[in-house]
Design a protein that fits this description.
With 387 residues, the chain is an alpha+beta fold. It is built from 9 helices and 6 strands. A hairpin with a 5-residue loop joins β5 (201-214) and β6. The radius of gyration is 31 Å and the shape is elongated. The two termini are 51 Å apart.
C-alpha cells in the first residue's frame, strides 16, 4: 500500500507541477512583454528585468494554483484510468478513500503553499517590486545623452556636456525653461545630478551656476547660486508615500490584523475583506483538489473522463463566480465579508462530500447518467445525419 500511495502522489504531483508552470507562464506572458518593452525603451539592465519578473511570479502563481491543482489531478487520474490502473486497484479491493489519502496529502501541501504565498511571499514581493520599479523610473525617466539638446518635458530643454559614473553626475549643464512663457528662463550650472524629491517628483540638483530670467518688460534678471534644486515637473511617486505601497495586498499578517482593528469603518471593512480573501482562496483550492479525485476516477467509457473534466471546470468557474459575487456584495456593504467569502466554500465542501459518498458506493455522480444519455443521443444523431 505504501508503494501504491507513493505512485499516486508522484503522478498527481508531477502533473500538478507541470500545470502550475504552464498556466503561470501563460498568465505571466503579457506582463513579461510589458517589461520587455520597458527594457527596450530605457537603460534597464537584463538583471533588473529578471528580478522584476521573479517578483511578480508569486502573485500570479496564487491565482493559477486552484485550476492547476484541479487539472493536474484530473490528468494524472485520467492517465491511470486509461492504463487500467484504477480498475485494477478497485478490483483488488482498494477503496476510493484509500486512493484519495495520498492525493489528499498533495492537496494539503498545495493549500499550505497557497497560504504561505498569500500571507508572506506576495506582500513582500509586491512591495519589493514597486520599490524597484520606482528606483528604476528615477534613474531611467531621463535617458540623458551627452552633447545633445533634449526636450525632457513640455517647454523644458536640457543640454549636458558630460556624464560621470557612478552617481550619474552631470557636468556642464544648460537648461532652457519655457514652462512659463511670460518669463522664460535659462540656467547654467557647472555640475548636477538627478534625484527624487520629497514629493515624488524627479528633480535636478544643480551646483555653481546662474539663472537668467527674461522679464515681461523686456529686462533680464540674473541670479547666481551655489546650489539650486530644480523640479523637472515629472511625477514618478515615492515608495514611502505612494498609495500603492500601502495597498492591502502589501500587508503582512500583523499589519493586516492591526488594520482590521483600527481605522475608519471603510478601511476596516476593506481590511476584513482582504483577510478573509487570503484564507478563503487557499481553502477553495483544497476543496477543488479534493473534488478532482472522484471525478478523475470515473470509468473510462463514454461518460467517464470527458464528463469528469467538463464538470470539474464548470464547478471551478461556478465556485469562483460565487466568491466574486460575495466579494462584490461585501464591497457594496450588502452583507458581511464572512458569508461573502465562506458560503461558496461551504456549499462546495458539501458537494465534495456528496460526490465522494456516491462514488464510494459506485453510484452515478451528479448527472453522469443523464450526460451519458445525452452523449449517446448526439452520437446516434450524428451517425444518422452522416449516413
Amino acid at each position: 500500500m505504501l508503494r501504491l500511495s507513493r505512485h499516486l502522489l508522484t503522478e498527481c504531483g508531477l502533473m500538478t507541477l507541470m500545470a502550475v508552470v504552464v498556466m503561470t507562464f501563460l498568465v505571466l506572458l503579457p506582463q513579461i512583454v510589458k517589461l520587455m518593452y520597458l527594457w527596450i525603451d530605457s537603460t534597464l539592465s537584463i538583471g533588473i528585468l529578471l528580478r522584476m519578473t521573479l517578483l511578480i511570479v508569486p502573485k500570479f502563481a496564487v491565482a493559477t494554483l486552484p485550476m492547476a491543482l484541479l487539472i493536474g489531478i484530473l490528468l494524472a487520474l485520467g492517465h491511470l484510468a486509461q492504463e487500467s490502473e484504477i480498475v485494477i486497484m478497485r478490483a483488488s479491493g482498494v477503496s476510493l478513500y484509500q486512493i484519495a489519502r495520498p492525493i489528499a496529502i498533495l492537496v494539503l501541501l498545495v493549500v499550505a503553499l497557497s497560504l504561505v504565498l498569500n500571507w508572506v511571499v506576495v506582500p513582500r514581493s509586491h512591495q519589493m517590486f514597486y520599490q524597484l520599479k520606482s528606483v528604476m523610473l528615477t534613474r531611467n525617466t531621463l535617458a540623458i545623452k551627452s552633447n545633445t539638446f533634449q526636450q525632457v518635458a513640455s517647454g523644458l530643454t536640457l543640454f549636458v556636456h558630460e556624464q560621470r559614473m557612478p552617481g550619474r553626475e552631470l557636468i556642464g549643464i544648460l537648461i532652457h525653461d519655457q514652462r512659463n512663457p511670460s518669463e522664460p528662463e535659462t540656467i547654467f550650472a557647472r555640475k548636477g545630478r538627478l534625484h527624487q524629491d520629497s514629493l515624488g517628483h524627479l528633480a535636478l540638483y544643480l551646483e555653481e551656476g546662474s539663472r537668467h530670467r527674461q522679464l515681461p518688460d523686456g529686462g533680464l534678471r540674473r541670479l547666481d547660486f551655489t546650489t539650486f534644486d530644480m523640479d523637472l515637473g515629472l511625477d514618478i511617486g515615492t515608495p514611502a508615500d505612494d498609495p500603492e505601497t500601502h495597498a492591502l495586498a502589501t500587508y503582512t499578517w500583523p499589519a493586516l490584523q492591526q488594520a482590521t482593528a483600527s481605522g475608519t469603518a471603510e478601511a476596516i471593512g476593506a481590511a476584513r475583506m482582504e483577510w478573509h480573501r487570503r484564507l478563503a482562496i487557499p481553502v477553495a483550492t483544497g476543496i477543488l483538489g479534493l473534488l478532482a479525485i472522484p471525478l478523475g476516477m470515473l470509468p473510462g467509457h463514454r461518460v467517464g473522463r470527458s464528463f469528469g473534466f467538463v464538470t470539474a471546470i464548470l464547478i471551478l468557474m461556478l465556485h469562483f463566480a460565487l466568491i466574486t459575487l460575495g466579494e462584490l456584495l461585501a464591497q457594496r456593504q450588502v452583507w458581511d465579508p464572512l458569508p461573502g467569502y465562506w458560503l461558496p466554500n461551504v456549499l462546495m465542501a458539501l458537494l465534495v462530500l456528496h460526490v465522494f459518498r456516491e462514488s464510494a458506493r459506485d453510484r452515478p455522480v451528479l448527472f453522469a447518467d443523464r450526460f451519458d444519455a445525452f452523449v449517446g443521443w448526439l452520437t446516434r444523431h450524428r451517425r444518422r445525419h452522416v449516413g
